[in-house]
Design a protein that fits this description.
Elements lengths: L8 H8 L14 H7 L1 E4 L3 E6 L2 E9 L2 E7 L24 E5 L2 E5 L3 E5 L5 E6 L4 E7 L3 E4 L5 E8 L8 E2 L12 E2 L2 E3 L2 E3 L2 E4 L3 E6 L8 E4 L5 E7 L2 E8 L3 H12 L12 E5 L5 H13 L6 E4 L32 H10 L3 E6 L6 H9 L24 H17 L3 E4 L8 H16 L7 E3 L11 E4 L7 H16 L5 E2 L11 H11 L5 E3 L15 H16 L1 H14 L4 E3 H4 L13 E3 L3 E3 L8 E6 L3 E4 L5 E3 L2 E6 L7 E4 L2 E5 L14 E6 L4 E7 L13 E8 L4 E7 L10 E8 L2 E8 L3 E5 L8
Parallel strand pairs: 21-22, 21-28, 22-23, 23-24, 24-25, 25-26, 26-27, 38-42
Antiparallel strand pairs: 1-2, 2-3, 3-4, 4-20, 5-6, 6-7, 7-8, 8-9, 10-11, 11-19, 12-16, 13-18, 14-15, 16-17, 17-20, 18-19, 29-30, 30-31, 31-36, 32-35, 33-34, 33-36, 37-38, 39-40, 40-41, 41-44, 42-43
Helix pairs in contact: 7-8, 10-11
Length: 764
């Protein structure tokens, strides 16, 4: 049976009737030949159709997803797919055989997938019987690519009245809506073989080799999309989903949910290429603490363990230490890291997908653990790249990493791993294995320069690579991060301030303010640039940046609870407006403002001068932290001082905020401030756990569900779960905004409670 299956029956029909001489041109096929040789048999998860040397399967991949698959030429069973949680179909999903007007197929609770074995036409419907992909004969070809490698091309048609509008293929473009995808990875670029279509479905394409992924193009007339699959197999995972939100959940269940990151990663993360010595590290930490600028991690480039290895020869050097410490910075790694952690600062170190030690390189050459070929950039140092797909190498790598974990390393920064599409996945698998072996129960956190589908389920995050320090770069970052959120990577960030060049005080301040609303808030800079330390950019900018970072820390209870929601539902923290307001055409391609969760609208300043326009979707919106209400479905003009950031809250919101603290180890730091923005009923579930281990997977958490009844002006809450660590909130400070100011009340956060708050003086 199919381990991972192959796309469309039309392709199989076509290839079954073609001779090798037809490859390279428009191939014709005989429907009589196909029909006469066709047979259909049931499997545990669907239907298997035999056409000459080709097989087609219509299957229930899981409760949300149908699979249309083709194998040509008696192709062998492909290797397991790294994209998916499971490569086999779920035999527990109930399905029924459907026959209709010459079509046969399967029906599940997700929808109906039908094919005509006579002419290769097919169609996809949702569970309501609505046509998502109309019945049509696909323009299929099986022909070699420019290098002579076999490939399958499949065309998907569209209903005339439905737009060819797709989202979620990654950040290969600077907009949300996409028209062409050449799948692959590059420096800060990840484009995946997935999209959600406004016709009401999502699709993930899988080939026989994950490192030769499928790609698609939209026809010039906009009436179809053509998928191209390198190799002899093609799988289409078809996910009926009426909205982007529904698609996010379905896609996450197919490729794996993103685990909850460690709590400290939601604080401020200071990265740097150019840490010079131990004194420099500790002087920087001293500045953060004395200036009361919150901080949770230092992230170190090459210098934590070595000098840059770019000029090493392909055979390496005998004295190069790939898994050691640079004693100029870390003369006492264990003692230093312990001391930094006592001050609330975690250690994250960069890693490269290669080795520099000549003896180690000889060993991986002998064991065939070296990656064949170089990366597309052609840099010579890629000649030392390792093959993380090898289980033997991953086991060896994990053993080398054990000592660093024991010394206190908290996370990894994986760089320059674009030599293959799945390098980051298997690299993270090695890091996950090391942590499970030597520090079981700890959460993995890594930051990667790209990703492939499924990487998120290992505990990986991504950043947008080596970008320039410019207003133009800042303006493009939100689209990249939002596209990644839709492409299945909910945890992402950028080099705040830009990697190349030194930002102006205004630019760094505005970029940091935007970072309040990124999943992770991390600055970084090239060693030739002025470090992005707030005190190096003048008193006014320093104070504005401190204020922005403090707001980030106040929002951690909200963000951390959203992270649990992301794990449970697949819906990302950082969301384009179109995800929350799918019926509003004005936000269909908008990325200069976005939602964090379903309640916060972030509209940071992305251009010099402190001015911008902000579109407010339908409904009532509060200016954050005030009783000022703005009517939606219109655009407003905003002017913000350097220490101000435009931020709005939907009416009908319960927003949990923490105190201003210097690092997440100081949580709770005081009472939980619960801001209520009335106008509608509201609810929110605050999730608390130890922030470090995987105990939450076994229910070791506390969930406090707050309910606001707008008519009665009553707040109630109920606590579930018996987690009682030192970081949980014990006290409650409630702020109710109303038309004439606000009402405030304090309470103890018991297992359940009720508060009657001041009634509104009027309705909005």
């Amino acid at each position: 049976m199919f381990q991972k299956s192959k796309l469309s029956l039309f392709t199989m029909a076509l290839v079954a009737s073609m001779s090798a001489s037809t490859f390279g041109g428009e191939a014709a096929f005989s429907s009589d030949l196909v029909a006469s040789s066709a047979s259909v048999e049931e499997t545990s998860s669907g239907l298997l159709l035999h056409y000459g040397q080709a097989m087609v399967e219509l299957a229930a991949a899981n409760r949300d997803t149908l699979r249309l698959s083709v194998t040509t030429g008696g192709g062998s069973v492909p290797a397991p797919c790294s994209f998916l949680v499971r490569t086999n179909s779920d035999s527990s999903v109930k399905w029924e055989l459907v026959k209709r007007g010459g079509l046969c197929g399967i029906s599940t609770s997700a929808g109906v997938l039908l094919m005509n074995p006579q002419n290769g036409e097919w169609t996809l419907e949702n569970c309501k019987g609505e046509v998502l992909i109309p019945q049509h004969e696909l323009a299929l070809r099986a022909e070699p690519d420019a290098s002579g490698n076999e490939q399958i091309s499949i065309e998907l048609g569209w209903e005339k009245h439905k737009p060819v509008t797709v989202y979620g293929s990654g950040n290969g473009v600077d907009e949300l809506q996409q028209t062409k995808v050449m799948t692959g990875v590059a420096n800060g670029v990840a484009v995946v073989p997935y999209y959600w279509c406004a016709a009401g479905y999502a699709v993930l394409a899988v080939t026989e080799n994950d490192n030769r992924p499928a790609f698609w193009r939209r026809a010039k007339n906009g009436k179809s999309v053509t998928w191209t699959f390198p190799g002899k197999t093609a799988d289409l995972y078809l996910m009926p989903a009426a909205t982007l939100k529904a698609a996010a959940g379905t896609y996450a269940r197919l490729t794996g949910p993103a685990p909850v990151p460690p709590r400290w990663t939601f604080g401020y993360l200071q990265s740097r290429w150019g840490w010079t010595n131990r004194a420099y590290i500790e002087d920087t930490l001293k500045h953060f603490r004395e200036l009361k600028i919150p901080l949770d991690a230092f992230i170190f480039d090459f210098e934590w363990y070595t000098a840059p290895d770019y000029k090493l020869p392909p055979k390496g050097a005998p004295d190069f230490d790939d898994f050691g410490w640079n004693t100029n910075l870390f003369s006492d790694p264990v003692g230093q890291i312990r001391d930094y952690k006592e001050q609330g600062v975690h250690f994250v170190g960069i890693r490269k997908p290669r080795l520099g030690n000549s003896n180690s390189l000889m060993m991986i050459q002998t064991n065939k653990w070296k990656l064949d070929g170089n990366a597309a950039d052609g840099e010579a140092y890629h000649a030392r790249d390792v093959d993380f797909t090898s289980p033997g190498f991953r086991e060896w790598y994990a053993k080398q990493t054990a000592g660093l974990l024991a010394d206190g390393v908290d996370g990894w920064w994986n760089d320059e791993g674009e030599a293959s599409f799945t390098t980051y996945y298997y690299w993270n698998l090695a890091e996950r294995s090391a942590l499970d072996s030597y520090q079981p129960g700890r959460r993995l956190w890594s930051l990667n320069r790209a990703f492939s589908p499924g990487t998120q389920r290992l505990g990986a995050a991504a950043w947008t690579g080596d970008i320039k320090s410019s207003w133009e770069s800042l303006a493009t970052v939100p689209a990249s991060l939002l596209n990644w959120s839709l492409a299945g990577m909910p945890y992402n960030t950028c080099d705040i301030g830009g990697f190349f060049g030194t930002p102006t005080p205004e630019l760094l301040t505005r970029w940091l303010q935007a970072g309040i609303f990124f999943p992770f808030m991390r600055t970084h800079s090239h060693h030739d640039a002025v470090a992005h330390f707030p005190w190096l950019y003048g008193a006014e900018a320093q104070d504005a940046m401190r204020k922005a970072i403090e707001l980030r820390y106040r929002l951690i209870p909200y963000y951390y609870s959203l992270a649990h929601e992301t794990f449970e539902t697949g819906i990302p923290l950082m969301r384009p407006l179109v995800m929350e307001f799918p019926g509003d055409s004005r936000v269909a391609n908008m990325s200069s403002e976005w939602m964090v969760g379903s309640s916060l609208l972030a509209a940071p300043i992305l251009q010099p001068g402190g001015k911008r326009s902000v579109y407010m979707p339908a409904g009532d919106w509060y200016v954050f932290g005030s009783n000022q209400v703005i009517k939606g479905a219109r655009t407003i003009k905003v002017k913000a001082a350097l220490d101000e950031v435009p931020m709005y809250v939907r009416a009908g919101t319960i927003l949990p905020l923490g105190s201003v603290i210097q690092h997440t180890g100081q949580m709770p730091g005081g009472a939980l401030e619960l801001q209520i923005y009335p106008g509608k009923d509201a609810s929110f579930t605050l999730v608390e756990d130890d922030g470090e281990t995987t105990g939450y997977l076994n229910g070791k958490m506390r969930r406090t569900t707050f309910q606001w009844d707008d008519d009665s002006g009553q707040l109630t809450w109920k606590v579930a779960g018996d987690y009682s660590g030192k970081e949980i909130f014990q006290n409650l400070h409630v702020v109710l905004f109303n038309l004439h100011g606000c009402s405030e009340v304090d309470s103890h956060l018991d297992e359940q409670g009720i508060l009657k708050l001041s009634a509104l003086d009027g309705k909005m």
